[in-house]
Each structure stands twice: as C-alpha cells, then as structure tokens.
C-alpha cells in the first residue's frame, strides 16, 4: 500500500486574519497537510514556478491545490489563475478561488479558466466540503 503523504496547499492571501482562519479550518478537519502562504500574486507565481526566493523544491514543493484570493497586491488573482492554466506543468492543479468579490464579471472570468470552485468570503464553512470534493478529505 502506498504511503500517504501530506497534501501541499498554497494559500495566496494578503489578509493575515483570513489566512489564520484557513489554517484553523484545515486543522479542524484533521487534514494531513503542509500549508504554504504567499501574500501577493507576484510571490504566488514565483512559488508556483519555483523561482526567485522559492527555488528549493524541498521547501517550496508543487502544491496539490491552490486557494487563491482575487484581490491581491502586485498581480491580481485572475492573472495568476491565467498563468496557472496556461502552464503545461501547472494547469492540472485544482484552484479554489476564495474572494470577497461577488461581481458576476469576476466569477465568469474565473470560471473561464476552469477553477474548481468560486467561493465568497466568509467561505470557511465551505472549505471542508470543497476539499472533500477535490479528494483531499475522506470520510472513513
């Protein structure tokens, strides 16, 4: 039987309070995970493409899922999403958009880039359900 490994989750969130709430939710569902957080779109792309400060693949592994805010400094979340979907090496990573934007335009743009889910903040009660859908959490 293959050894289960911790899931690598990249959280792209500029708000520290929201990031802490995500961490609390992940701990509450007993998900074996490693949470990596970056606070802007530029750092997200550096992490994903393992460049700049994120070249060590042991310290900055490829994420199994990306939790992506849309309203980010430097490069916005929709642009990050576009880069993910256009990259051969990243395009299959599930992306869950977590945002305060209820704008139909933002939702349609995100969906046009094949996001797994588009969830409005406060989204924390839905995070467990989404991770279960992706296959991260099993109900034994």
From TrEMBL:
Sites bearing 4-aspartylphosphate, chain numbering: 69
Keyword set, alphabetical order: Phosphoprotein
InterPro entries: CheY-like_superfamily, Sig_transdc_resp-reg_receiver, TCS_response_regulator
Keyword Phosphoprotein attributed: yes
Superkingdom to which the source organism belongs: Bacteria
Biological process annotations from GO: phosphorelay signal transduction system
Sequence ranges assigned to domain Response regulatory in this UniProt record: 8-136
PANTHER family reported for this sequence: RESPONSE REGULATOR RCP1-RELATED, TWO-COMPONENT SYSTEM REGULATORY PROTEIN
Name of the protein described by the UniProt record: Response regulator
């Amino acid at each position: 039987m293959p050894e289960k490994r911790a899931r690598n989750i990249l959280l792209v969130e500029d708000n520290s309070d929201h990031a802490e709430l995500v961490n609390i939710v992940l701990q509450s569902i007993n998900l074996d995970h490693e949470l990596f957080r970056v606070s802007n779109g530029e750092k997200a792309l550096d992490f994903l493409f393992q460049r700049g400060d994120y070249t060590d693949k042991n310290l900055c592994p490829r994420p199994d899922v990306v939790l992506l805010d849309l309203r980010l400094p430097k490069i916005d979340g929709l642009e990050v999403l576009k880069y993910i979907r256009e990259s051969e090496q990243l395009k299959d990573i599930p992306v869950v958009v977590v945002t305060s934007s209820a704008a139909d335009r933002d939702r349609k743009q995100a969906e046009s880039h094949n996001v797994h889910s588009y969830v409005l903040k406060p989204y924390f009660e839905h995070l467990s359900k989404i991770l279960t859908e992706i296959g991260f959490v099993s109900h034994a």
